[in-house]
Design brief:
Low-confidence stretches: 480-489
Distance between the termini: 7 Å
Structural class: mainly alpha
Radius of gyration: 23 Å
Strand content: under 5%
Number of strands: 0
Largest sheet: none
Helix content: over 70%
Order of helices and strands: HHHHHHHHHHHHHHHHHHHHHH
Mean pLDDT: 84
Number of helices: 22
């Protein structure tokens, strides 16, 4: 069954690993904010977005295919080995390209300044290493080896922290960002090789069927556009800000992009588990079970996930100051503007795993393409009226909401479920009321400490009231005795 004891166990440990990864990610950015200038922090944010943009290209998005096909009976480690061999050949091609092409031109194109050419080679080496990490996680995810998958994700962040601290305290080299990406890439490659040696399925007698390998490639290649569009949604706001305004302004946009991606970690454990789980349910023909489980998930998104936005809005000042420092207080208004769209973005992350698990057709291409078009069109339109980074903040926020809106429509179209139920509409009305309450709370003119105390009291009242209401109304996601079953499949 979809919601079963093993599933809840896997979800719990995946959440623990993602929570640790989030803490480590926050620590990395915090250290970068302490040791880098505002301009160089903008370079870091832009570089990280560039890495994520190139990963689906260099990996041919094969991690998705591995996750999708890995739950099927014919799958074995040999498929992963063949894909990694292909990936190494692609990596060699990338290495030759970087050697031949003028890095100063790439630096000018990406950073609007040719002085950063020294960082180009380390970044693309980091792209290659991160791609290897993504393929490994995709293989372990599809093969449902969630413990190793979680371990790999934790090591990914841990390696970055280790490298960053060694560079700072041992004073290795003179360029922090270049060394961070270069040595971080080596560590990522090494620990992923070690994890693959721990794989219990590395020895197999199964043969690789060309038809199966073809299906993996088709499933993956057809979804490459979605990876590119998705990457551009997070890359272009920072890039255009650096082009139109300044790298310092790009840092502010990079901060809200980072907060959005950090919040997305709430939905990622579900996404990681939903794709192989729903692919399995689809294969055994459990259509009624699929609809039942999706209704529970949609209700959970409306009744829980959406309410993360008001909390981010309420504590926006504390998030910016504690995470990035006093130098970035101007970013608070950007974060507040984006906060209502964070919940829907997390909802998209969760729904995306279901869609990819249920359908071979690449609906994700359509979802991300329309979201990207919305972001671009709105960015240029708003710039006419608002010639500052707020225009990019608004267009980026609407782009996030568009991801959810189209994914929402897609899942309804695929499964014919009922979305606009009475309970979901009531939750939306409550959400609006809470935003109004949060707005008036922030308008209270008292000292920082007293206001912080009031914020905590208000948030505790909101959270406890919501859970009491959902318990009394017997929300499906909270009534565990009705939905937890033994996993007989």
């Amino acid at each position: 069954m979809f919601i079963s004891k093993p599933f809840i166990k896997n979800t719990f440990f995946t959440y623990i690993s993602q929570f640790l990864a989030v803490l480590l990610g926050i620590l990395i950015v915090k250290i970068m904010a302490l040791y880098l200038t505002s301009e160089n922090l903008g370079i870091y944010f832009l570089s990280r977005r560039l890495v994520l943009l190139f990963i689906p290209l260099i990996t041919l998005n094969l991690a998705m295919g591995l996750s999708w096909f890995g739950s099927k009976r014919d799958f074995s480690r040999l498929y992963f080995n063949k894909i990694v061999f292909t990936y190494i050949l692609i990596g060699l091609g990338l290495f030759i390209f970087i050697l031949i092409f003028d890095n100063a031109i790439l630096s000018q194109t990406i950073y609007n300044n040719n002085e950063y050419e020294y960082i180009i080679s380390p970044i693309f080496f980091f792209v290659f290493a991160s791609g290897f990490q993504v393929l490994t996680v995709g293989y372990l995810r599809g093969n449902r080896q969630y413990n190793l998958m979680n371990l790999s994700n934790i090591f990914y962040r841990t390696s970055s922290i280790v490298v960053l601290l060694l560079i700072i305290f041992l004073k290795i080299g003179t360029e922090l960002l270049a060394e961070f990406f270069y040595y971080g890439a080596w560590l990522i490659i090494i620990y992923n090789i070690i994890i693959l040696f721990k794989d219990t399925n590395k020895m197999t007698n199964k043969i690789v069927k060309k038809q199966n390998l073809k299906q993996i490639y088709e499933y993956s290649l057809f979804r490459i556009p979605s990876g590119i569009f998705y990457g551009l949604i997070f890359f272009l706001p920072i890039y255009l800000t650096s082009k139109w305004f300044s790298l310092t302004d790009a840092t502010h946009i990079g901060i809200i992009v980072t907060v959005a991606n950090t919040a997305a970690m709430i939905g990622i454990p579900f996404n990681l588990l939903f794709l192989p789980t729903f692919s399995h349910l689809h294969d055994i023909g459990s259509n009624e079970q699929v609809r039942e489980r999706i209704n529970i998930i949609i209700e959970f998104i409306f009744q829980v996930i959406f309410f993360i936005g008001p909390l981010i809005y309420l504590f926006s000042q504390e998030i910016i100051i504690m995470w990035f420092g006093q130098n970035y207080v101007n970013t608070i208004i950007y974060l507040q503007l984006m906060s209502p769209f964070v919940g829907p973005f997390i909802g998209y992350i969760m729904i995306r795993g279901i869609i990819d698990g249920l359908s071979f057709y690449p609906y994700s291409n359509i979802i991300t393409m329309f979201s990207f078009i919305t972001l671009i069109a709105l960015t240029f339109i708003l710039k006419i009226f608002i010639n500052n980074p707020i225009s990019i903040t608004l267009s980026f926020s609407v782009g996030l909401f568009t991801l959810f809106g189209i994914a929402f429509y897609t899942i309804k179209r695929i499964t014919n479920i009922s979305i606009f139920t009475k309970s979901n509409l009531v939750s939306f009305i409550i959400l609006v009321i809470i935003y109004i309450l949060a707005f008036f709370t922030l308008s209270i003119n008292i000292s920082f400490l007293y206001l912080l105390i009031i914020k905590f009291i208000v948030s505790l009242i909101i959270i406890s009231s919501l859970f009491y209401y959902y318990y009394q109304t017997k929300a499906s996601w909270i009534m565990y005795s009705n939905i937890i079953r033994n996993d007989k499949n």
